[in-house]
Amino acid sequence: MVPQVAGYLQTLVLLVFVVHPGQQVCVDVPSGTEAVLGRSMKLTCIACLRREEIKAKTRVDWYYMPNKENDIPPTKTHIYKYEDESPAALDGPFKGRLTWNGSQDLQDVSIQIINVTYNDSGVYECRVIREFEFDFFTPSVSLTKNINLSVKEKASEDTTAVYSEIMMYVLLVFLTFWLLVEMVYCYRKISKSDEQTQDTATNYLAIPSDQKACPAAPVSQ
């Protein structure tokens, strides 16, 4: 019984205290589409690499198109680029208000708008081009994502975030309670096993010496 209880404790300790380091995982998450006037806004663009060990030359271009008005096709403006490991904001309406917010491995190629204005509403296009470096040829892949951004004076209430926070606390309380129950259960198992071992030893010592099993006498030839 003791080895079994010890196994329970080891498993419990591993589940609670051991953090197993692993490789970074790329998750393609959508960008926010609602900005607040006067605040900063991150335009999220994720371009995951299927084979991270393969070297690739990455170029990122961001474009802006204002909302369509009076059936006039909007003009596309090149506002930001990342090339040769150098991000740069281009001349235009966003000059001085765009910053690079991507990751070092260039799987996250997001940018951030500082001091959002009403004129920033519109469609933002993120275009990623990768050229892979092989010995005999250099294939390339491209990815394009559009973000339809709207600017509001005040932030609207995000019910999803509120529910997520509530569920997080509920789950935390449940896991804490489950951990306490498991610890009490294991402690009682160990205590019961120790009591049984002690009772067995006590009963053995209480038996008169003449009633204890004696080893058989050797038989002489």
Task: List key phrases describing it.
single chain; 221 residues; 6-stranded mixed beta sheet; 3-stranded antiparallel beta sheet; 2 helices; 26% strand; elongated; disordered N terminus
Summarize the structure.
The chain is α+β, with helices and mostly antiparallel strands and 221 residues long. Helix content is 29%, strand content 26%. It is built from two helices and nine strands.
Overall form: elongated
Provide the structure class: alpha+beta
Count of distinct strands: 9
What is the percentage of strand-forming residues?
A: 25-35%
Helical proportion, percent range: 25-40%
Low-confidence stretches: 1-6, 11-23
Description:
- The relative contact order is 0.16.
- Strand 4 and strand 5 form a beta hairpin.
- Helix 1 runs antiparallel to helix 2.
- The strands form 2 sheets. This protein has a 6-stranded mixed β-sheet with strand order 1-9-8-3-4-5, with no helix packed on it.
- The two termini are 45 Å apart.
- It has 221 residues and is of the alpha+beta class.
- The N terminus is likely disordered.
- The chain has 2 helices and 9 strands, in the order H-E-E-E-E-E-E-E-E-E-H.
